[in-house]
Design brief:
This protein is of the alpha/beta class and 336 residues long. The chain is 40% helix and 17% strand. It has a single domain (71-327), classed as NAD(P)-binding Rossmann-like Domain (Rossmann fold, 3-Layer(aba) Sandwich). The mean pLDDT is 92.
Length: 336
C-alpha cells in the first residue's frame, strides 16, 4: 500500500484530497493546524509543519508521495526544505498559483504563458516585494533548476468551496452575510469586465489524484482550473440574482484603501496592491487541457461555476436556516 503525506490536510483543497486518496487505497497521513479525528485510511496530525524538525520526523517515515499545501511567508522557509522533499519521496507536489502569470487579455493562460517575474521591468514595484506571487515564482525556479525529476508544480486558480465565496478580493463570508443583512458590498469599477475562472476544491483533489504517481506528471507544471470563464461583473450578477446582493462601485485607489484598512502595515498594503493590481485587474481565462489529459478527466466532470457558487454560499449559512425557511414557507401556505 502506498503512503501519502498531505501537508495542510484540512484546508480548502486538503479536506477533499485526503478522503479521495484514502478511497484510492492509499494510506494517508495529514498534517493539519487543527485537531481532527482520524477516519478510514486517514490519520490526522496536529503539528507545526513549518518547523523543519517536525517535517524531518514525518519525512523519515518514507512516503511514496508528498502534497505540500503550505503557505510559505518568505522564500527562505522554502529554500531550507525543498531538497528535503525531493530527497525523501518518489513524487512531490508543490503548490504554486495562477497568480504567477502576467496579464493575458487575448488568449487563455497556458503553462507556457509569460510569468510576472519575466514580464515586468526589473524596476517595477512588483519586484520590490516579497508577496505571495513573488514567493511562488521563486519556489518554481528552485524546483525547475534542480536536477531532480520527481516534482510536479500545481498552479490553481481561485479555489472555492462551502464557506469560501469569491468576488474580486472578497473571498470569505462577506458576500453572503452582507446580502442577508441587506447591506451593500463595495467593488472597483475597473474589475467588472476582467475575466476570471475558479476551481471547486473537490475538483483540485480529482486532478491531484489523477496525476499522482503518473510518470508523465513528473517534472511538469499544471494549470489547476476549469475552462469555464466569467467576468467579475457576471459573478456579481449571479450573486445579485440569487442572494439579492447590492453593490456600490468606486475607483481602484479608493478600493485599495478600503481593503488595506486604516494605517495598514507594509505587508498588508503590499497584499492589497498585489492581489488587486497584479491579479484581479488582469484577465484570467485558463487553458486546462494539459491537466485534464494527464489526470484522465473531462471538462464536463468539473463543477460548473454557478452551481459551485450556490453550494459555496449555502455553506456559509447556519445549518438551521433551511429548516427555518421551510417552516416559514409552510406557515405562509397555511395562511393562504
Amino acid at each position: 500500500m502506498k503512503k501519502v503525506l498531505v501537508i495542510g490536510g484540512t484546508g480548502t483543497m486538503g479536506r477533499y484530497l485526503c478522503p479521495l486518496l484514502a478511497q484510492k487505497g492509499y494510506e494517508v497521513d495529514a498534517i493539519a493546524g487543527e485537531i481532527k479525528k482520524d477516519s478510514d485510511g486517514i490519520r490526522y496530525h496536529f503539528a507545526n509543519a513549518l518547523d523543519n524538525r517536525v517535517l524531518e520526523q514525518y519525512l523519515s517515515k518514507g512516503y511514496d508521495a508528498v502534497v505540500d499545501f503550505m503557505w510559505y511567508r518568505d522564500i527562505s522557509s522554502y529554500e531550507s526544505r525543498y531538497r528535503m522533499f525531493l530527497n525523501s519521496t518518489d513524487h512531490y507536489f508543490a503548490l504554486s498559483s495562477y497568480r504567477v502569470y502576467a496579464d493575458s487579455p487575448n488568449a487563455p493562460l497556458t503553462e507556457d504563458s509569460p510569468r510576472l517575474s519575466e514580464s515586468l521591468h526589473p524596476c517595477d514595484i512588483w519586484h520590490q516585494s516579497t508577496g505571495y506571487a513573488q514567493i511562488k515564482c521563486r519556489m518554481e525556479d528552485l524546483l525547475t533548476s534542480s536536477k531532480e525529476k520527481n516534482w510536479t508544480i500545481l498552479r490553481p486558480t481561485v479555489v472555492y468551496c462551502p464557506g469560501r465565496v469569491p468576488l474580486v478580493t472578497w473571498s470569505k463570508n462577506e458576500i453572503v452575510l452582507r446580502a442577508y443583512a441587506g447591506k451593500k458590498i463595495v467593488l472597483p469599477y475597473e474589475a467588472l469586465d476582467k475575466k476570471t475562472t475558479m476551481i471547486w476544491g473537490e475538483d483540485v483533489a480529482k486532478m491531484i489524484g489523477g496525476l499522482m504517481f503518473h510518470p508523465a506528471a513528473k517534472r511538469e507544471i499544471y494549470n489547476v482550473a476549469t475552462a469555464e470563464t466569467l467576468t467579475w461583473g457576471e459573478v456579481l450578477a449571479y450573486y445579485q440574482s440569487t442572494l439579492g446582493l447590492e453593490a456600490e462601485f468606486c475607483d481602484t485607489e479608493d478600493f485599495l484603501r478600503l481593503i488595506a484598512g486604516e494605517n495598514p502595515s507594509e505587508s498588508k498594503l503590499n497584499w492589497a496592491k498585489f492581489i488587486l493590481h497584479y491579479d484581479r485587474l488582469y484577465h484570467r481565462s485558463v487553458d486546462n487541457s494539459k491537466v485534464l489529459r494527464d489526470a484522465g478527466l473531462k471538462q464536463e466532470e468539473l463543477m460548473p461555476i454557478r452551481e459551485g457558487l450556490r453550494l459555496a454560499a449555502k455553506g456559509i449559512l447556519p445549518k438551521d436556516f433551511d429548516r427555518l425557511d421551510a417552516y416559514l414557507e409552510e406557515r405562509a401556505r397555511e395562511k393562504n
